[in-house]
Write a structure and sequence with these properties.
It contains twelve helices and four strands, in the order ααααβαββααααβααα. By secondary structure, it is mainly alpha-helical.
Length: 299
């Protein structure tokens, strides 16, 4: 098919924006897995809770939207912390399959609790006028939010890397990810580090959810299921346990989806299938992901 440069740039802009969202949410998956070797399948539902907290905060309080955008991720982070205390901490010494089942159960619980509390009917997410503004750059139309999302993702990536590499808490996280027992013997507060990890991961999921709500302003209690699965795939593609790899995987997945639709519009209905096909290919060719490292299983 013939495609002008402007059309190609338009698709690239959309792909980078979507990839940034995937990356932001995938970081939470990869942080939790890096420390606990736990796939937190409730992560997509934490993402959903962040969107609804923002929705009700903007619609039913006098607080300005930009303050809500800051407060909602913090509150969501606390909910993620509560989830860890209730669903995962009591099972920490149990077999991994037990914790995995608990994560799946927590996901279904949050989805159905969302339907009960928020209702099953779709709601329109309130988009601030400044974020919905359309910019025309060289013949390419870019919504302000599409311009902001990659910037926010890159800033958070650098900030998180600095936190993990340069602070004592970050060093403790890295020690815990390498050897749980040795870190405990060295006096590291295991429970505190795990709590911080869940808080940061849930906060990032909420930030991604807010940007998702602005970009796709229709929200439902099941809205976190497919993005959650795709962000897990993005983390696996990049190398689950590696933060930079999760961001790389998010960009690859987002760009791949948009370019698939751009060049092969007849396959639009298979957009979601593309992510799972890519996952299968990665697992066959490089099971540890593009930036992952082999980790010896504990006996």
């Amino acid at each position: 098919m013939n495609m002008s440069i402007q059309e190609f740039l338009q698709h690239m802009t959309n792909g980078i924006s979507l990839g940034s969202l995937y990356a932001l949410i995938a970081i939470g998956y990869t942080m939790v897995y890096g420390i606990l070797r736990l796939i937190n399948f409730a992560h997509g539902d934490i993402f959903m809770l962040g969107v609804y907290i923002t929705f009700y905060g903007i619609g039913f309080t006098p607080i300005p939207w930009y303050i809500i955008f800051l407060l909602a991720p913090i509150l969501t982070g606390l909910l993620g912390l509560l989830l860890e205390k209730l669903a995962y901490k009591p099972l920490r010494e149990s077999p991994r399959i037990t914790i995995l089942i608990s994560a799946i159960g927590a996901s279904f619980l949050l989805q159905n609790l969302g339907i009960l509390v928020f209702g099953g009917r779709p709601k329109a997410f309130p988009t601030p006028a400044v974020l919905g503004r359309i910019l025309n750059i060289g013949g390419v139309s870019v919504a302000t939010v599409n311009f902001i999302i990659p910037i926010v993702t890159i800033i958070l990536l650098f900030g998180l890397n600095f936190f993990i590499l340069k602070t004592k808490t970050g060093m403790a996280m890295r020690a815990l990810s390498k050897d749980y027992e040795a870190a405990s013997l060295m006096g590291i507060n295991i429970n505190g580090i795990i709590s911080i990890t869940f808080f940061i991961g849930s906060l990032l999921a909420a930030m991604g959810g807010i940007m998702w709500g602005v970009k796709y302003p229709q929200i439902i209690p099941h809205m976190g299921v497919m993005p959650g699965l795709k962000c897990f795939i993005a983390a696996v593609i990049g190398g689950i346990g590696n933060i930079t790899g999760a961001v790389l995987g998010g960009f690859i997945l987002g760009l791949g989806e948009i370019l698939l639709i751009a060049f092969l519009p007849s396959l639009t209905g298979y957009r979601d299938a593309f992510a799972f096909i890519l996952l299968i290919i990665i697992l066959l060719v490089r099971p540890t992901g593009l930036m992952g490292e082999k980790i010896a299983e504990k006996v």
